[in-house]
């Protein structure tokens, strides 16, 4: 049985112990670092399958650690932050983080986020079984033919709506910022127009969610961006 290797980077010993115990109870092997320098060493030597990283480290900015790790590794990185700043969250995601958790948080949410990122990484690494067909809830998307169906019936979506949906699918559950989506779907000239994403996301929810006002799959990450939940 493969035991996931998790690196926890957190300078507060009580929180680090809490994280370690929570993840070890779920069958994961946990390694620790209490500052940025140690985090870089542990990441290089332990080769973790996922990193849980506090941004507020005593010797360096956590975003610098993310950028360094991204220079040689694509392992998922979940950021922990006590800061409610939208700019800080966006900066961490654009530096290469895959997800973030605002402090305080509960064990169930932590474990769910970790497992979701491990699944995404496993699927991304399993190139031999890659498929053009993906699904979430009762929606099926064919990335090759640009066909979308819901509960077995064809759904008409516009080319831009499809590009937005495909971008979220490729994200495999990651939080994608407004800027990332704008660049991917519309191009560099639209990087400062987040209302484009909101309008087209609302259209997609009307067509693909059972309850558009309470979406289960096309999920908003407040002030940051969007994620696609429940991808199979």
From TrEMBL:
Residues 5-118 form the Response regulatory domain. Residues 131-230 form the OmpR/PhoB-type domain. One of its GO terms (cellular component) is cytosol. The modification 4-aspartylphosphate is found at residue 54. The keyword Cytoplasm applies. GO terms for biological process: positive regulation of DNA-templated transcription. This is Response regulator. It comes from Luteibacter pinisoli.
